[in-house]
Design brief:
The protein is an alpha+beta fold and about 160 residues long. It folds into two domains: about 90 residues, PH-domain like (Roll), CATH 2.30.29; about 40 residues. It has a four-stranded antiparallel β-sheet with strand order 1-2-3-4, covered by helices on one side. Strand 2 and strand 3 form a beta hairpin. Helix 1 packs antiparallel against helix 2. The longest helix is centred in the first third of the chain and has 20 residues. The two termini are about 35 Å apart.
Length: about 160
């Protein structure tokens, strides 16, 4: 661990997945068929919502992930420029089962209370030590069901 009690690392905001042309064709067919059915049944707002959602889904499927900088220091966890003070972090968990370990943080936020981020294997013990030193509870956590569903759909 650094002398000044800081741990820094960077990682891609999400794992980039290659999608074939068939994936985009399937997306287009599903969006067009669903929106046409909505228009036939007179639900124009939902049809328009499906089209906008399909376009956004296609856009985010081709978007390259940004590099995110993380830092754990004496004040708390910093993700990009946002600081989560230790007093707002209810608990943490480091899942080491996968090739790349994942740090889970349970915050006091109402929207997205559990934040997950990839960490480098060589700093896992330093992160755990620093969290425990700052009285953050260690509590087992895992990915939300919606994340597993999105992963199986190729996101």
């Amino acid at each position: 661990m650094n002398e000044n009690k800081e741990i820094e690392w960077s990682a891609l905001e999400y794992e980039k997945k290659e999608r074939s042309n068939d994936w985009f064709w399937a997306l287009g067919v599903i969006v067009v068929a669903s929106s046409v059915a909505s228009f036939i049944y007179g639900n124009f707002f939902f049809g328009l919502l499906l089209i906008i959602g399909g376009v956004l889904l296609g856009f985010f499927a081709v978007k390259k992930p940004d590099l995110v900088f993380y830092e754990i220091n004496k004040n708390g966890l910093k993700i990009r420029s946002r600081l989560y003070p230790y007093k707002n972090i209810k608990s943490f968990w480091i899942k080491k089962e996968r090739e790349n370990p994942t740090l889970f943080i349970k915050s006091g936020r109402i929207f997205m209370p559990i934040i997950s981020m990839p960490v480098k294997r060589e700093i896992v013990e330093d992160i755990k030590k620093m969290m425990l030193e700052n009285d953050v509870l260690e509590e087992e956590m895992k990915e939300h069901v919606s994340e597993k569903i999105m992963d199986s759909l190729g996101f």
